[in-house]
Predict the 3D structure of the following.
Amino acid sequence: MSEHSNFIDLLIELLIDLFSPIAAFGFIVVICHLIFQDRLRRSAFRIALEMFFLFLVLILAGLYLAYLDASDGWFMSIAALFLLIFLNNYTKTVRDGLHKLLFVFGVAFHAASCLMLLSDMLDVAFNVQKYFPITVLISIAAHTLGGWAVYRWFAPPLRQIGSRDMKWLWIVPVVFYVISEFLPFVNLDPGVFDAAHMPLFLIYLISSLAVCVLLLRILAGVSKNVRLESEAAAVNRQLVMQREQYLRLMKNMETVKFMRHDMRHHLTLMEELGQGVAKLEEYIQSLSEKLSDGEEKFYCTNYAVNAVTAHYLGMAESESASVEARLEVPEETGLVPAMDLCVIMGNLLENAVEACRRVKHGNKFIRVRACITGDSLSVVVTNSFDGLWHECGKEGVYLSRKTDKGETLREGVGLSSVKAICEKHRGIVQFEITGDVWKSSALVHMESMASILG
């Protein structure tokens, strides 16, 4: 009976010694995967199963070494081997860059080692090392609260930063871990440990993690600014290209207009010269009728906007879509350049034509309205579409369907250009979907320079 009791006491003592490092390892595993929960290559169940067997091997190896009364060096070797196996598996399980993965691992390792030491401090301070349930509760409470804090602090900024921007940042938590190992107030030996040092150690843990979070947020801010500047530069380049395109379009339309005018005179002369030749007269008459049908349509007094509108509505009519336009766009547009209005009108109409082209059955139509209210110009384009669209998580951001097969969907360049123009002129752009009808609305302020200076 005495031998059985001694075995139970020995087993409990071994479990107490092993529980703290096992809890720390569990903390590392959970944090490293939880932060990247949406970028895992394997299911959570499979990862949990793999980690369960790895932990089982670790526990059995630790119990065996403890039974043999092996030195601490053996325990450290087993722990290091476990971490290497986990780190190799971790980099293959998460779809992200190595630098980011190493940083998260470093933070989790530093936090876990400090929390393990903190829970051991609490055990010694309250003299509960031999009471296994209390030790377990203290360790679970410390690691749970610490895990919640680490996840809440680190997960949001990590989603905003690419791995390339975090090169060598993983060294920071590693340095903090090394420092924690040499702090003078972490000695738990009897007669040396002072419970009054626990708040100091807790302050060090929180401060070190706060520094890591601060560096991460600064890096996230810089990365976001660089990304926004790059996107703005891309939109500006696109706007310049679109303005040039619309200028060429207007020049071509003007050239065609003069050519049609001159061609009518030539045909009239040819018709007079070819009198008496029936087939020639019939052919010339047919050409004259076609030239008359192709005369420029008039939608508004602003020549540039009229040219762009006529171009795209002509394309819509060639797609068998019914078109209707009522535009009140004056020749003078205040502080809004005519080319900016062309970008808005051209992109909205181009999307409408593309949408009508995708409609296989049913009525195809495009209705355009533009009017001035006060110092604001509003443009509304309503068109039929096939009822399919892709919307980003951010409200009001619709993804372009003009992508190659297998390419990631992204916001259309045309809509980005329209938004940029509207924001530039203190306006807005909105999209509404009702069944198989798509409605795009854009508004810009056209105030005069005198009203601004006044």
Remarks:
- The two ends are 100 Å apart (CA to CA).
- The chain has twelve helices and seven strands.
